[in-house]
Design a protein that fits this description.
Elements (H helix, E strand, L loop, with lengths): L4 E2 L20 H14 L4 E3 L9 E5 L11 H8 L2 E13 L3 E7 L2 E10 L2 E7 L5 E7 H14 L10 H15 L9 E2 L1 H6 L1
Parallel strand pairs: 1-9
Antiparallel strand pairs: 2-3, 3-4, 4-7, 5-6, 7-8
């Protein structure tokens, strides 16, 4: 089932999410719904806060990047085969010289900006079977993970912009929170929630 994606301005996007245990109710169904929601919105990542749940859960599937000819064949092959579920994740290390990449977010449609992030991370997480992994990632895969990880920390990519850039997009963000935007996927806007 495709779930509505929570729009910028909803308080759930600002909460530090809580860990879950393997007896979290209907977790398999939730994961299926989150993947369906992400694919339905043409995303490469989706975090639980983006569907209104303040829990430490996010997914990443970089396959859409595999079609992008700006990347090497080796990178494209990597992207094609990278699909992960991250539960109770903790980034242990971030290293390297920060690099800029144009990011967007399903919760903040029609806003894309260059964001600086470190290129390498080490992360500990549990998969959908609650097996613990400690892995290192770099490049674009690390960036997608960092972006989704920020969501479970209550951070949005727009928080990482300069004060000038923030001022320039202020009107767009205000319109998103009021539902004054057209998107081709299901969204839930803070203004609509208050009216009920």
């Amino acid at each position: 089932m495709i779930l509505p994606i929570v729009a910028y301005g909803d308080p759930v996007l600002r909460k530090k999410a809580k860990n879950i245990t393997k007896d979290y109710p209907k977790l398999d169904l939730l994961l299926d719904n989150m993947y369906e929601t992400m694919y339905g919105a043409f995303g490469v990542g989706l975090a639980a806060p983006q569907i209104g749940l303040p829990i430490r859960l996010f997914l990443v599937d970089t396959e859409p990047f595999a079609e992008d000819k700006d990347f090497t064949e080796e990178e494209q092959e990597q992207f094609k085969n990278f699909k992960r579920t991250f539960i109770n994740a903790e980034i242990l290390e971030e290293e390297g010289d920060e690099w800029a990449f144009n990011e967007g977010c399903l919760s903040i449609p029609d806003v894309r900006e260059d964001v600086f992030r470190q290129p390498r991370i080490k992360i500990q997480y549990q998969d959908e079977n609650f097996e613990t992994h400690i892995e290192e990632f770099d490049g674009l895969i690390a960036r997608v993970i960092q972006h989704e990880y920020d969501h479970i920390e209550g951070i949005l990519f727009t928080d990482k912009l300069s004060s000038l850039k923030k001022r320039l997009i202020k009107g767009k963000l205000s319109n998103i929170s009021k539902g004054k935007i057209r998107v081709d996927y299901k969204m839930r806007f803070p203004a609509m929630k208050k009216k009920r």
